[in-house]
Amino acid sequence: MNASEALVMARTQLVLRHPFFGMLALRLRLVERTDLPFKTLGVDGKHLYYDPDFVQTCPKGRLQAAVAHEVVHCALSHISRRGARDPMRWNKAIDYATNLILDDAGLDVDKENWLFDLRFKDMSAEDIYNQLQSEDGGKDGGNATGTGTGNQAVFDAHMTGGDEVDDQQWAAAAVQAAQAAQAAGKLPGSLRRLVDEMLEPQIDWREKLAQFMHAARGLSDYSWMRPQRRMLVYGTVLPSMEGRALGTLVAVSDDSGSVDSKMLQALASEINGIAISTSPEKLIHISCDARINHVAEFSPHDEFVMTSNGGGGTDFRPPFAYVDEHGIQPQCLIYLTDGYGPFPTEAPSYPVLWVMTTKVVPPWGDHIRIEI
Length: 372
Fold this sequence. Notes:
Number of helices: 14
Distance between the termini: 44 Å
Largest sheet: 6 strands, mixed
Order of helices and strands: HHEEEHHHHHEHHHHEHEEHEEHEEE
Strand content: 15-25%
Oligomer: single chain
Structural class: alpha/beta
Number of strands: 12
Shape: elongated
Helix content: 40-55%
Strand order of the largest sheet: 9-8-7-10-11-12
């Protein structure tokens, strides 16, 4: 039996014994590659790459676990969730999380040679990543062509010249596979919890952001007596909203590496659009990791932009201290972060909206989860 036939057999056995993994494995096209970083398997969301020597020497049960391992990376959007995180450390985190899921499902996990540690049980990949980052002092985990360590390689689309992975299609397929597995009585508890999270209704973060900023101002109705100042520079006269003027708006971005440029641009675009209608007197952007790296001020006529300037650890306290020390009295403050870091012990007197890239719930203030 050659390598391709062995993989087809492994997928067939997964469909029969572990239908969740087996059904999803059928979505990946088998492609032989002898240049894989760890000479095992690799995945990019569309292809299952395999080293023929590894496949032909791998025990049948272990090969099924290896294929299921790649499936989990796709089903849980591990490829796109990395963001700006260190590639090698992220791959370790997703491997630890994935192998615990496989073990819970009863698959043949190689606990001696694969990344496996029960202390990470029931932790998300993001939580594991931050734990690993804390343990290694924040140093980079290294670089590789594919972000793999100990198990297999996870390839970003640009590494293979392919298109971006469609996470929504994978999520929908994962839900369908879970429903089929549950109907057959073969859905492990850990997977049931993950699928339940996928089915949770998502609130449009843009809508909630707009509601937050308008509530901070106390808007009532449109008025032509006070046109929007931000639009005058374009030669356009539009009515502004009557009500309490929006004073200073402070926006803080987490520079620790957990927030990528797409999220920064998306949030800045939404804030800029809302600012056109609310006309704040001033916008202040603070970029901060464990310390403040950059502060920029924008007038009512400027386009609001957010840039990344750091890359170290995370501490949410410096921006609030900066606001107090400089006598700034913001109408509201918006903080974009993954939520992993020390918070100020007490909430400030002004409204705060935490825009989270994870499911972390802050100890105070409003919060929304952003997904790009």
